[in-house]
Amino acid sequence: MARTGARERPSYRCGECGWVSSRWVGRCGECQAWGTVEQVGTPAGPRTLSAGPVSAPARPIGDVDAEQARSFATGVDELDRVLGGGLVPGAVVLLAGEPGVGKSTLLLDVASRSAEARRRVLYVSAEESASQVRLRADRIGALHPELFLAAETDLAAVLGHLDAVEPTLLVVDSVQTVSSREVEGAPGGVSQVREVAAALSRAAKLRGVATVLVGHVTKDGSIAGPRVLEHLVDVVLHFEGDRHSPLRLVRAVKNRYGPTDDVGCFHLSDDGIAEVSDPTGLFTSRHLAPVPGSCLTVTLEGRRPLVAEVQALVGPAGQGSPRRATSGLDASRVAMVLAVLQRRARLDVGPREVFCATVGGMRLAEPAADLAVALAVTGSLADATVPSSTVVLGEVGLAGEVRGVPGLQLRLAEAARLGVRTALVPPDPVRAPAGIRVVEVPDVAAAMSALYT
How far is 335 from 354, CA to CA, in rounded Å? Predict the structure, then answer.
């Protein structure tokens, strides 16, 4: 006989990826995130909803006013470049970065410049007191009567300030420290972050207020909180930088209103943060004469070509295993290039200690810098120099061949603009810019012969 009135077991769902389980577990079985599985109640069957009132009647797309979605400039050209022209009214932007990288300083400067453009700005600080933010504003010169400041950690209070001030731009620093009394859980938890982000996003859309949220990152560099946070916002920006370097980069990983392949450059100092419209000089060193073990290359940060310098130092082997140290370069790719030089070019680098680095804190992760690393190591080992007016481009394969790189024409144009006279490139039909001589090298041995013979 069938049982009646039996209780159905509740289900559990991951707040990160939506994975569903019949029992509670501490770690999600799909995305492997810890502490994100929550009870969602008894599984319900399919529901039938009746039609409800609409907020506005549907219109032909040609009759919709597009001016309401026109972006306005923030006053910071490098940030506008990444955003695709500026901030869109009603858009929600998430700016994430490591602690101390300069997120609050950048947004306080953006808020001040927007206020100078006669736009009312509300800056909500949920991590610092109003006095602490005022001290930073004094230091970077970000004081303006149209810039309003509030220190709140409660979501309802933030929405109350939004109604009272009626700003054009809202900055919330940060979304992980604001909480709602209507939701259980500590600030920064999955439920709280999801509710706060959703409420601020709804308020931004209804009022047409451009909103910028500051986000924290985890140890592996990903944005803290549920993955749905990135889906709720319109733009996701990453603010990157090394603590030992003043250079800061802003890049977009999601942008509904513009490209995601551009980067903005900034210089962080005690007096605030400044734009760097031409950052090439930050990644090259200045010598009275060429130095062995140094080689120039051109990297692409999004669509932006930057001339960078690779340096290598090869020394005699010490006791034990030879050391391999890198700074600003991918250690696995450097190890591969050294293996290719040992096997294909017959260079005795196996028992020697090799140190490779970039200048100015630049990070070269793309394979286009392989040939520059190979020639820098070769120059240091042979005590030979690469002319300062020469750039090297190309990916090195395991057979020693030099492969093509994307954006070669763009890289050569940037090199020519900076006075480069010679470029070693892969065998690729390319139109050489005026004033630069292009030398095609099919493999590493040919590149070494072109430079050091």
Answer: 10
Mean local confidence (pLDDT), 283-293: 82
Give dist(CA 190, CA 34) in Å, integer: 11
In a 13 Å sphere around the CA of 51, the CA atoms on its Cβ side amount to 2
Does this model's pTM top 0.85? no
Closest CA to 92 of 191, 190, 186, 207: 207
Domains and CATH numbers, the chain: 11-41 (no CATH), 71-277 (3.40.50.300), 282-452 (3.30.230.10)
pLDDT at 45: 54
d(CA 79, CA 262) in angstroms, rounded, equals 10
Question: What is the Cα–Cα distance from 321 to 318, expressed in whole angstroms?
Answer: 8
Cβ 231 vs Cβ 254: under 8 Å: no
Counting other chains too, the contacts that 206-209 makes at CB distance below 8 Å and 24 or more residues apart are: 207/90, 207/162, 207/166, 208/68, 208/89, 208/90, 209/89, 209/90, 209/162, 209/167, 209/168, 209/169, 209/170
Residues contacting residue 153 through CB under 8 Å, at least 6 positions apart? 126, 177, 178, 179, 187
Sign of CA dihedral 415, 416, 417, 420: positive
How are beta strands 272-275 and 263-269 bridged, if at all? antiparallel
Q: Is 50 helix (H, G, I), strand (E, B) or coil?
A: coil
Distance of CA 223 to the CA centre of its chain: 11
In whole angstroms, give the CA distance from residue 170 to residue 159: 11
Residue keyed to tokens 């916002």: 233
Kindly state the tokens that stand for 233: 């916002």
Residues 6+ positions from 260 with CB-CB distance below 8 Å: 252, 253, 254, 302
37-41 sheet: strands from edge to edge: 20-21, 11-14, 37-41
* Spatial separation of the C-alpha atoms in residues 434 and 134, rounded to whole Å: 52
Confidence tier at 269 by pLDDT (50, 70, 90): confident
Identify the residue whose tokens are 């410049």. 113
Give tens-digit pLDDT for 198-256. 999 999 999 999 999 999 888 777 887 777 789 899 999 999 887 777 888 899 999 99
CB-count burial class (<10 Å; 0-12, 13-18, 19+) for 198: middle
Measure the CA–CA gap between 45 and 60, rounded to whole angstroms: 36
